[in-house]
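Reviewers of the previous submission asked for a worked example of the structure-prediction workflow described in the proposal, so we include one complete record here. The input consisted solely of the amino acid sequence. No template or homolog information was supplied to the procedure at any stage.
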Amino acid sequence: MQLNFKIIAILFLIVLVSLSVTPAFAHFEHLPHNNGGGEDLGRYYVNQALDPEYAKPGQPAHIEFSIQDDNGHDVSNVMTAVEVYDGITGQRLELFPWQLHSSGDFEVHYTFEKLGNYVVVISLADENTTPDHIIPPRNLLSSLSDCQCQRAVFNISITDHIGTVWNTVMTLAIFIPLTVFGSVLAMHFWNLKKKGIQPTTPEVMKYLIMLLAVAGGIIHLGVYADHGSLRIEYSIFLLAASIIQVGFGIFYVLMTLLPPSITSKQSILQHYNKTLLLNLVGLVGTSILVGLYIYVLIFPPPLSPDGRPEILDYDGAFSKSVEITTMIGILYLMIYERRKKKILLGSIPKL
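From that input alone, the workflow returned the following structure tokens.
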């Protein structure tokens, strides 16, 4: 237990340090895995993403930008122009002319009509300049000739199936470890039955809680990096939650499956108190995770750079379903352990 508390303390300190040194990040819903990127332009850093991330031909899309200064702080009153080029022929397909944006976060709407590669160019006017000229097409897309500006170039790939492939891989990355872990537990119970040992409901519940806790941790491990584009603190929090959940699940079974000695009242009470503490840690910790998720679905998350609540998605709904089930299982075991304590205490002969 002392080692676990040290690990939690270290993770907490990491979060505190990151809060003090990290000013801002791209204000996207999640870190882009495809059709997104960032580029340093001197006094600016330009982040780009596509929504939907895996846009298909003919599907309306938003080309999103999130611009910070060279210290990572939000900027305002930026003058930009955006161009879309065919990645093969070099032909310019669209020009969004110079426009003043009150915030560094903005988007333009474009439909990529066919499969293939495209190039998106954003031009940022130099400080104290207000260009109003029409930008001519160029062969060298990053050229600054006849433009008092800086330019960032991003590549976009429009395909039919890459989104399905990515989502399938991520789903397998979450479910394969859980399937293997669950199969090991199932084989353990099968071996017990072959030996004529019938596991009790509480014993099964303890292994189920371990599986659910590890499942919640694996899900958080699968999605923690996605939140780094909003605030890196979100990713640190989810990573810490993942480590703690997996550690709790394993430690839970190691501790609670050890049969208590019934040789003395003191030994029974010591075992019960340790089990109660562990159950309370799991119950309170899981309740906090569920409560925080419900909160951010209604209100903007703490430290939110865009001031918007989270959107309910499959990963979040599945993760919270697992955690709510874990809470129900822990409550069941707390009631069971209390009854078991009374029975064990009653079995000790009075002196």
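The chain has two domains: 2-16+200-347, 37-158. We consider this example representative of the routine output the project will generate in years two and three.
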